[in-house]
Amino acid sequence: VRKRIVTIDGPSGGGKSTVSRALAAKLHFTYLDTGAMYRAVAYHCREQGIAAEEGPQLADLLASLRIELLPPLPGGDDVRVLVEGGEVGQALRTPEMGMLASQFSALPMVRATLTRLQQQIGAGGRIVAEGRDTGTVVFPDAAWKFFLDASPEVRAQRRAAQLRGKGETVDEQQLLAQIIKRDKADRERSAAPLQAAADAVILDSTQIPADEVVEQMYAHILATS
Ligand code: C5P
């Protein structure tokens, strides 16, 4: 039996977060931002001076790690992330933290810990999960799977607009280079690489605004429920 779970995977900056949040609201499902969990591990390890390689220190940290996700505050966008009970905030959302998260996410030890936690959160269904491997590894029995792609240039533009909206100055060329590098690493790693599940619906948002992507997904879900 397929679980009442929607998975949305794809490369960074393809509009996954915006689309996942909106779709979750429309379905009255919970939005599960798995990328935030990888960012939280990277952040916490950096704070503790632990490098991105497997070893006893990382194993200890993962064994006792407490990560909690809370819904955004009214008027806010991002899921709030608590690590060991403390809220991390915007430090999680920088491009640098995305790169560091990508390094930690290649480690099987890290993936095993977070995959288990994500499966616990999704056990009751009614979840829209967003990430790189949610349709392939975390929730292979999800009822609805999407893979959302877009050209690297458009993704860099959107990410730049998003960061500028938060009052940051951005170098768009540098952002594009980072996006290309992070996607390559995510696609080519051996542990749970970024790829579309065989049964995923593939959408390209290069030419389509986010609200239209949401409508297409919603229509597909209604048609196959
Ligand atoms: O989606 P977001 O940009 O927040 O993800 C940060 C990084 O976390 C990704 O580049 C990827 O390396 C990793 N990630 C992952 N599997 C997921 C979600 C994120 O490996 N399900």
Automatic annotation (TrEMBL):
Q: Where in the cell is it found?
A: Cytoplasm
The answer to keyword DNA-binding applying to this record is no
Q: What keywords appear on the UniProt entry? A: ATP-binding, Cytoplasm, Kinase, Nucleotide-binding, Transferase
Please tell me one Gene Ontology term that the record gives under cellular component: cytosol
Q: Which Pfam families match?
A: Cytidylate_kin
Which ranges carry the Cytidylate kinase domain? 6-220
EC number(s) on file: 2.7.4.25
Top-level EC class, please? transferase
Among HAMAP family, the record links this protein to:
Cytidyl_kinase_type1 (MF_00238)
Q: Which family is this protein grouped under? A: Belongs to the cytidylate kinase family. Type 1 subfamily.
Q: What is this protein called?
A: Cytidylate kinase
